[in-house]
Amino acid sequence: MAKLHEIIAVEGGLQTTARKINEETIKTFGRRDEHFVGHTKETKHFADDDAKLDTSESKEMVTTVMDRLLYGTAANVRAMDAYMQKEATNQTAHADLVVDGVMLATQVPAIVLLGLETRITELRAVYEAIPTLAPGPTWELDTDRRKAGGVYRSANPDSTFRTRKTVRPIIMAPATDKHPAQVQAITEDVPVARIVTHHWSGMMTSAQKSDLLGRIDKLLRGLKRARQRANDATLVDRKIGGDIFAYLHGGIVA
């Protein structure tokens, strides 16, 4: 018996074919009389001498409205039936969601598994954007601030000095009995204060981010496997297209 994954594989193509035929039919109908009328025109002179001037011409119809409607019926019926079978089977197709040996949910409908896969893929972009702690400093958890979330502080605070420029004389040459001392003034920075900076960060470690992304990827793989199991469900053989067109065309289109 046919499986759900088999109808999923072909339904898109059937829908595309039906859509193209419908679009072509709309264009054909838009040409109005051009494709849907024909004529025969004969000219016959009364006088025998003018018989050589008699003419006859004709234009055949390209198609009829009924022909165009019937042309698209088969493709639309196949597309509708495929859609009906897929969605009817989706009502019964389900699988357990197991990740890393942990049962996260049982009997999850196939359509839900597909939707979760899309949403978790979008969510992954959020985790991919997580900022991580700057390399260099040694970071440690600040247990005093832990209630507010994952807060880290630098194990070794930065220490710098504030300086002030001062002028100090330097004796270049001592005084002698013949010459005075040679003195030169120099400018130097003299420490006047110590500045100690403690750093905190609410970012994650690279290892934590990597672990989160790894779990998301495992979850996505689990969803894909569960969806594949669900899509192996036996196809519900229900049809609707023929009944729809029987109602639409009944008594109007042959």
Description:
Among the domains are: 1-93 and 235-254; 139-201, no CATH class. The mean pLDDT is 90. The two termini are 34 Å apart. It is 43% helix and 25% strand. Helix 4 (110-128) packs antiparallel against helix 5. The protein is elongated. It is of the alpha+beta class and 254 residues long. It contains six helices and nine strands. The strands form four sheets. It has a three-stranded antiparallel β-sheet with strand order 5-6-9, with no helix packed on it. Strands 1-2 form a two-stranded antiparallel sheet.
What brief labels describe this structure?
single chain; 254 residues; alpha+beta; 3-stranded antiparallel β-sheet; two-stranded antiparallel sheet; 6 helices; 9 strands; 43% helix; 25% strand; elongated
Helices, by number, come to 6
Q: How many DSSP E strands?
A: 9
Write out the strand line-up for the largest beta sheet, numbering strands in chain order: 5-6-9
Give the oligomer, counting copies of the same chain as homo and different chains as hetero. single chain
Structural class: alpha+beta
Percent helix: 40-55%
Strand percentage, roughly? 25-35%
Overall pLDDT metric: 90
- Cα-atom Rg, whole angstroms? 43 Å
Which word captures the global form? elongated
Unreliable parts: none
Q: Compute the separation of the termini in Å.
A: 34 Å
Main sheet properties:
3 strands, antiparallel
User: SSE string, helix = H, strand = E?
Assistant: HHEEHEEHEEEEEHH
